[in-house]
Design the sequence.
C-alpha cells in the first residue's frame, strides 16, 4: 500500500513540475524590422478563442488572420503563450485585434510579452515599416495538439486508475 501511494506521489510531482515558473524580464525591445527578421511568423489577426491549460501553465489562442508579413499563408493560426504576465505571457483578449510576432518551438507557434506582440491599434510604428503585407490564402485549420497534452492526460488517467484500484482492495 505504501509503495502505491509513493508511486502516486512521484507521478503527481512529475506532472505538476513539467515546466518551471520564472518571473518575466524583457530586454530593451528591438526595432520592428529587427523583430520581424527574427520572428518565424508575423501577422495581424483577431482572437477567436482562448483556452487555458492549468497543467502546462499555458494558453492556446486562435486567430482569424487579416494580414501576413512573414512565414505563413494561413487564414487561421493557433499560438501558445504563458498563462500569466509574470511568466511573460502575452495578454491576448477575445475578439481583439493584434499584431503577433510568433516563434516556432517544436512545431508550435509561441509568443510572449517581450516579442512586440501588441494590440493592432497601438502598432503604428511596427506597421509603418512593414508595408501592406499580404492576405491569407490557405483556409485550412491547424488541429494539431502538442504531445505534452497527451502525456499530462495519460498521467492523470494512471493516477485515477491507481486510486480506484487501491479503494477496491480496501
Sequence:
Amino acid at each position: 500500500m505504501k509503495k502505491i501511494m509513493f508511486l502516486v506521489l512521484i507521478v503527481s510531482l512529475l506532472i505538476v513540475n513539467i515546466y518551471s515558473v520564472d518571473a518575466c524580464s524583457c530586454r530593451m525591445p528591438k526595432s520592428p524590422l529587427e523583430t520581424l527578421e527574427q520572428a518565424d511568423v508575423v501577422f495581424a489577426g483577431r482572437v477567436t478563442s482562448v483556452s487555458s491549460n492549468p497543467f502546462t501553465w499555458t494558453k492556446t489562442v486562435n486567430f482569424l488572420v487579416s494580414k501576413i508579413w512573414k512565414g505563413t499563408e494561413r487564414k487561421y493560426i493557433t499560438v501558445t503563450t504563458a498563462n500569466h504576465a509574470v511568466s511573460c505571457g502575452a495578454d491576448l483578449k477575445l475578439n481583439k485585434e493584434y499584431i503577433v510576432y510568433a516563434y516556432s518551438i517544436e512545431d508550435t507557434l509561441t509568443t510572449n510579452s517581450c516579442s512586440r506582440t501588441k494590440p493592432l491599434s497601438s502598432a503604428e510604428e511596427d506597421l509603418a515599416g512593414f508595408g501592406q503585407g499580404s492576405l491569407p490564402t490557405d483556409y485550412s485549420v491547424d488541429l494539431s495538439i502538442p504531445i505534452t497534452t497527451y502525456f499530462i492526460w495519460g498521467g492523470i488517467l494512471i493516477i485515477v486508475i491507481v486510486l480506484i484500484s487501491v479503494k477496491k482492495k480496501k
Helices lie at 2-16, 32-38, 124-130, 147-169. The radius of gyration is 20 Å.
